[in-house]
Amino acid sequence: MKKKLKVLALFDAIAPTRIDQDLTPELSTADWKTEANVLEALAALGHTTEHLAIFDNLDLLRQKLESFAPDVLFNLADQFKNNRGFDQNIVSLLEMQGVPFTGCGATGLVLCKHKGISKKILSYHRIRTPNFVVIPRGQRVARPRQLKFPLLVKPVKEEASLGIAQASFVESDEQFRDRVTFIHDRHDGDVIAEEYIAGRELYVSLLGHRRLEVFPIRELVFREVPPDEPRIATYRAKWDEEYRKRWGLENQFAEGLDPALVAHIAQTCKRIYRLLTIDGYARIDLRLTAANQVYFIEANPNPILAADEDFALSAEKAGVPYPQLINRIILNGMKTVRD
Q1: In the CATH scheme, what is the homologous superfamily, with its name and number, of domain 199-335?
Q2: 268 close to 258: Cβ distance less than 8 angstroms
Q3: DSSP letter at 311?
Q4: Strands 294-301 and 280-288
Q5: pLDDT tens-digit profile, the chain (339 residues)
Q6: Helices in the chain by DSSP H: which ranges?
Q7: What is the rounded distance in angstroms from the CA atom of residue 14 to the CA atom of residue 35?
Q8: What is the pTM of this model?
Q9: What is the DSSP string of 30-74?
Q10: Which residues sit opposite 75 in a β-bridge?
Q11: Domain edges within the chain
Q12: At 83, is the secondary structure helix, strand, or coil?
C-alpha cells in the first residue's frame, strides 16, 4: 500500500500519563519491546504516527482522536487501570467512536478470554477440547465424576499463563480442592479444570478477516523434562529464561508434521477463528496427541507482536517481513466492518 496514513498507536500504561508524555525511557525497556518494534515499523513504512499511553483516563484518548484525527488506531492497549479484563471495554469504546482500529473486536475478545465459553462453543461444533468444568468463586469445590485425572486447574480468564504452575497439574481430589481454592483466593476469579492432554504444544498464527492466512506452526518443546513429568506451558515456562534453560524449553518451528496433518490443523484453526468471531490476528494454542488428534486449548486474539515472538517469526517464515506484517494488520483493521 503506497498511501501514507495517519496512525495513532495506543498503548497501556501502569501509572497515570499525560497526553504529551515523552515515552522514550519506557520504549527502551524490555517491557515495551512490542510498542518500540511497532513504532519502528510504522516509521519505516512512512506513516505519520503519534502515540498515546493510557492508564485510567479515557478523556486523553478522546482529545487525541480530535486533535490528531487518525485514519486508523493501532491498538496495543490490553489493560486499563492494570486490569487485563478491560481490554474488550477499550475496544468497545473504539467501536462506538467509529474509528478503524487494528486487531480483534469486542465480541471476539470476550469469547476468547473466558476459556469455558470458548470451549463450549467449539465442542458444540465438534472441535475437540479437553473435558472440563468451570468452578465459580463461592461454589462448593467438587470434581464431577466424569472428569478424569490428571487435571489442569487454572484461572478461567487470565492470559499469558498467569496462575499456571506445576501445582496446576493435579492427580487427586485433595490436590484438586487445594489448587481450586488457591486460585479462587489468589486470583479472585473463577476456575477452569480440564483433563490433561499429553502431547505436543503447538501455536498456530492466523492473520485476516474474511480471507485468512495461516502461518507456519510453532511448537514449545520440552527437551529436558523427563517422559513421566507433565509438559505444561506454565507461567515460568513462558517467561522465566533461567527456568526455560534448565528444562530445555524452546519455541521453534514444528518439525516432522505430515503435510496432510498441517492442512487439517490449518483448516481447524480457521474454523476456530471464525466460530469465536476473531478478527485481525490471533494465535491458537493446540495439543497434538501421539495419535495425531488435535485438541483446542485456547485462542489468543491480539497476541504479542514483538518482532522476536512467535507470531512475527511465523509471518516472517511465510515471507511476510515485520514492517509488511504491521502494514497488513493496519489494512485489515481499516477493512473490517464493526457492528
Answers
A1: ATP-grasp fold, B domain (3.30.470.20)
A2: no
A3: H
A4: antiparallel
A5: 468 999 999 999 999 999 989 999 999 999 999 999 999 999 999 999 999 999 999 999 999 999 999 999 999 999 899 888 889 999 999 999 999 999 999 999 999 999 999 999 999 999 999 999 999 998 888 899 999 999 999 998 877 677 788 889 999 999 999 999 999 988 888 999 999 999 999 999 999 988 999 999 999 999 888 888 888 888 787 888 888 998 889 999 999 999 999 999 999 999 999 999 999 999 999 999 999 999 999 999 999 999 999 999 999 999 999 999 999 999 999 987 765
A6: 24-27, 33-45, 58-68, 87-97, 106-113, 115-124, 173-186, 235-239, 241-246, 259-275, 310-317, 322-335
A7: 14
A8: 0.94
A9: GGGHHHHHHHHHHHHHT-EEEEEEESS-HHHHHHHHHHH--SEEE
A10: 10
A11: 6-101, 146-195, 199-335
A12: strand
CA pair distance 245, 230, nearest whole angstrom = 17
Residue 50 carries which side chain, given as an amino acid letter? Answer: E
Cell numbers linked to 85 = 479484563
Q: What would the grid cell of residue 71 be? A: 485514519
